[in-house]
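Encode chain A's predicted structure.
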Amino acid sequence: MVANERTRPRVPLRLPTVRAEHLIQYSIAGLTAVLVLSPLLPVLYSSFRDRPLYDAGGVLSLGNYVRLFSDPAFHRVIGDTFSFAVLATIISVGLGVLMAVVIGRTDVPARSILAEIVLWPIYLSPLVVAFAWVIMYSPAGFGTLLAKNLFGIQPWNLYSIPGMALVASVSMMPIAYLYCSSSAAVADPALEDAARSIGAGPLRTLLTVTLPLMRPPILYSAVLIFTIALEILSIPMVLGGPVGINFFSSYLYNQWLGGARPDYGLVGAAAVVLLVIVTALVLVQNSLLRESARFVTVRGKASRPHIFKLGRQRWIIFAFICLYLLLAAILPMIGLIMRAFTKFLTPLAPPWQFLTLNNMKVIFSYPAYVRSITNSIVIALIGGVVTTLFVALVALVAHRSEFRFRRVLDFLAIYPRAMPGMIVGIGFFWALVMLKPLGPIRNTIWGLTIAFSVRYLPTAFGAIAPMLARLGAELDDAARTVGASWWTTSWAILLKLLKPALFSSFILMFIQMIKEYGCAVFLVAPGSEVMGLTMLQFWVQGETGPVAALSLLQVVITMAIVYVGRKLFKVRIYA
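Encoded structure for chain A:
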């Protein structure tokens, strides 16, 4: 029997309830959007305003861009920046590919030891590398004076665009090595065997088969290195400043801090130009990843790449690699250590005649210098932990939920790759000035911690998201079948399985944050000093001894964290 309309019971109308997991997901997505957009929108807005944001009555115009592109100095900046970036990319990628192929696929001696030494510069701040090279290879450097005494000439000039590109390549070469070594290690030996079967020798096979198959990681690392070169600050500050060579980063720095009153509009316009260029490069990177499927050589069938036998040539190649590592990494670091504990460093007299602890005493004698060390450690520790946990939640929402805006959230999490550190610093400066609720954290280490965290969101996301993708969806389904919510599944199961990735993320975040100083240029104030800016302050004052001592302390702290990560958490650096 079918009930008629009059006898059917009426169900009261109920408004849909918002589940707790939806509230969590929207909160995480909203906070991510606020963090990422907070430094972007003020920079963009200030670039179109005819006066600083804190001045009332401003109007929107293109005047800042007109002034920027009509400035001959900016034209020189563009040319010098791109020349430096192209040259640094060529050197870094060329050396990185060579190291990846030789160490990963040939019988060169001491391969495992070489693989470790090649990665050393990736743990160091480019600022420390620049200081170390100046101590060793500047016109008054130990190595330069030694070369003059031996050969009667100065063989190199660091204070030039090629010299700066060479110094930058020391820091960036390990990036190309990491990407390319991973590809070289999994190459299909069948293709190389086919070349060998028709008479191709080891070197010809490497050049005609192995290297072309490595094209995606080569191109990807090249774009990444070019992007980093565009935004690097330490090299132009240390080496370009004395000879009047400016890049994008040092131009922003000088326009902001070089005069009695910063030209905020011009800085905003230049920052937007740099942001657009870097964003375009990031889009190119993403397109390269989509094209990489054409170069897949690892299939379901198990295979192990062959090690190429180089014969006597392996000793020549081994000698070349050792010479590069000695001159580029080992000797500059030895020079840095020696300068930290000597009054002077000269090849004309034995270093032990000038031994002293005064450089270390200077650092620990002034509260501001001690604060810079403790502040950097606190920011790196707290920022590393908080950012890792937050990014883990972001990854869970973006990749393991039915959140309707999860693709947008995924884009927001990786977009800070396109935000140079100086732009993040400028943006947060304006955000902290204009937003009254954020006033209490202005000029504090907590404002710096937030800026550093946003800067390295993609680093943490890149450490966590790939491992999350390897966890089968059946884990979620099994939990749901017994009534577990999305939040319970994420907290009780997925986060626990993600512990190795969380440890990796924390170690990587600590390393990056303790080296960071680009963001801090525009945010630091008395009481919130960090190590990188204290080093720059020493350098400007001509105090190379304290610079070396503080750089050495940063290296020791970083290497200690790397050692702990590798021993306790089994964390390694991967591309």
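The CA atoms of residues 39 and 333 lie 36 Å apart.
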